[in-house]
Amino acid sequence: MRKTAIFAAALTLGALMALVATPVATRADSSPEGVVKYRQLVMKSIGAHMGGISTILKGEVDYGPKHIEEHAEAISYMAELLPDAFRENVGTSGGETIAKQEIWGDWDNFVAKAKGLQEASANLAEIAESGDMAALGDGMKALGGACGACHTAFRVKK
Q: For 50-63, what is each residue's pLDDT tens digit?
């Protein structure tokens, strides 16, 4: 019985080591469809966190500044991913997208706007952490402005 348990443990460990050693697909291996899907998921994540903050600030739920702080930090983390997520211009070969081609024609501006979103959301997180409820509205307004600035320049109107 003991040999069976040792064998099973060794087999499990070997399988885990093989799994860890298996290479993960790199961006070079990504399909255009996968690239667009990933971008859309990152953007939907940002939108969901914005919605969470808005729901709290409107008083529709009673969660308060700690939740706002967490949502804002999540947006900051997602904003950090944006330049890499959009680096590859797959055009329309990746499927339906509302990303404008101007992203790749004005790359430095796109990256700057992503950085602006990251900074505005990190600032909102700091405001929420401080508990200054009066300043939350201004912080959210700045965050919305950072989102809107990028959407105006780089997203097709819906």
A: 999 999 999 999 99
Residues 6+ apart with CB under 8 A from 7: none
Amino acid identity for residue 32 in this structure = P
Q: pTM of the full predicted structure?
A: 0.81
Each residue of 20-42: pLDDT tens digit? 444 444 545 689 999 999 999 99
| DSSP notation for the chain | -HHHHHHHHHHHHHHHHHHHHSPPPPGGG--HHHHHHHHHHHHHHHHHHHHHHHHHHTTSS---HHHHHHHHHHHHHHHHHHHHHHSS--GGGG-S--B-THHHHTHHHHHHHHHHHHHHHHHHHHHHHHT-HHHHHHHHHHHHHHHHHHHHHHB---
Residues β-bridged to residue 99: 155
Q: What distance in Å separates the CA atoms of residue 49 and residue 71, rounded to the nearest whole number?
A: 5
Q: Which residues pair with 84 in a beta bridge?
A: none
β partners of residue 155 = 99
For residue 139, give both structure tokens. Answer: 């912080």
